[in-house]
Description:
This protein is an alpha/beta fold. The protein has helices at residues 5-11, 25-33, 47-57, 104-115, 141-151, 163-173, 188-198, 209-221, 236-253, 271-283, 296-309, 342-355, 371-376, 382-391, 413-419, 434-443; strands spanning 63-68, 71-76, 93-98, 118-121, 124-127, 130-134, 156-159, 179-183, 202-204, 227-232, 262-265, 288-291, 323-326, 335-339, 359-364, 402-405, 423-426.
Amino acid sequence: xxxxxxxxxxxxxxxxxxxCGFPTCMAFAMQVTAMTKNLEDCPKIxxxxxxxxxxxxxxxxxxxKVGTGNNVFxxxxxxxxxxxxxxxxNPCGIAVRIPASLSDEEMLKKIDKINKSEFxxxxxxxxxxxxxxxxDNCSQPDARARLASERSSVPLVLIGTNPSKxxxxxxxxxxxxxxxxxxxxxxxxxxxxxAAQAQVPLAICGNSLEETADLVDKARNKKIDQIALAFDSxxxxxxxxxxxxxRRAALTKNFRSFGYPAIVNIEEQDEEIQSAxxxxxxxKYAGIVIVDTTSPEALLPVLTAIGNIYTDPQVPNAVExxxxxxxxxxxxxxxxxxxxxSLTYFSVAGEVxxxxxxxxxxxxxxEGLGVLNSYAGDKISVDKVVKTMKEQKxxxxxxxxxxxxxxxxxxxxxxxxxxxxxxxxxxxxxARGIPALLHxxxxxxxxxx
Length: 449
Ligand code: SF4
């Protein structure tokens, strides 16, 4: 049974010392019951109280860490089944597999690609989180793991089921805290020993959910608490069903044996299928997906799906309201306005960049709503646009007085011209049309001095 706020508060020292980062013990107690903090995050709590109550106050899903220092990937500690109930906390990571069949040289080339797998979308950096090295069919798994670890800029997963090979590989890089994938009914005792000795996280998989729960309990009894539930992609519908069952059991029934994040190993040749499966598993409810591909066309859709599902639905996805300079605009450069919804701003900014014509973008604060929604929701008006342009001193930046407005707000044209010095050019309804429009205006000499 989870503890109430008052029950947690009674356990705490009540000194309001703030060492936990919260102003009072009550505020900290609220975080514990909201499952965003654990009792052990209070440095002042007695070890007896911690031991007695940590199980009851623990988050229903453990936070699991792979790697060390600044190079750590964290997954788990989720608290809800559906994002709209609150939010999802620790985004699913993509691990890219290094097959044992690759030579060392080929492996290093693939790791270089993994290191460079970074994308920028809506102002955020998206990247591959882990390198997953197969060790079973390596003649020297220790040397293999060491070489991969030296080259990889992200933490490692070690894939294998052979205890002696895994032991050599883990021992070689245990200081880097790799995740072992995976303990099975056949190797569970040896793999528990390896994980316990090296103090590294362990992924566990039974032949059924009941068996997985038994194996997890076995590991917990040996004081291993950095555990992941391991799945594969042989039957995707079954995998999603099992991911959902284990998550629901942990979060709504507080079933401790499933109170760990999940990792899914996707073994498909086709890159598009890898991409589709990885996206589906990431959304429901994997914490790590292992794929083979390093192709940007396959990775970007997965990272986009992860980025979308892990945004906080209670926080507007907005950029700062200010005058943005795209390229190096001057006094004869185009001026346009848009709203501060991130996706809208970055779509407009991206298309201006694509046009290679430097321009100013005046971003109006619409509380994170896009163009049509802000108009429908009364978050944008002619007065607000004109006022924002004055506040951002747009007129001081350019000699001309020609303002491009979003095509969806063509209705603003007459009124802006009536109450300001700006002549309005009605732009396109879709950001995609911006480069053609800017080139047309340039060819017509619209901004010539
Ligand atoms: S560190 Fe512990 S004792 Fe200090 S304010 Fe936080 S909860 Fe209270």
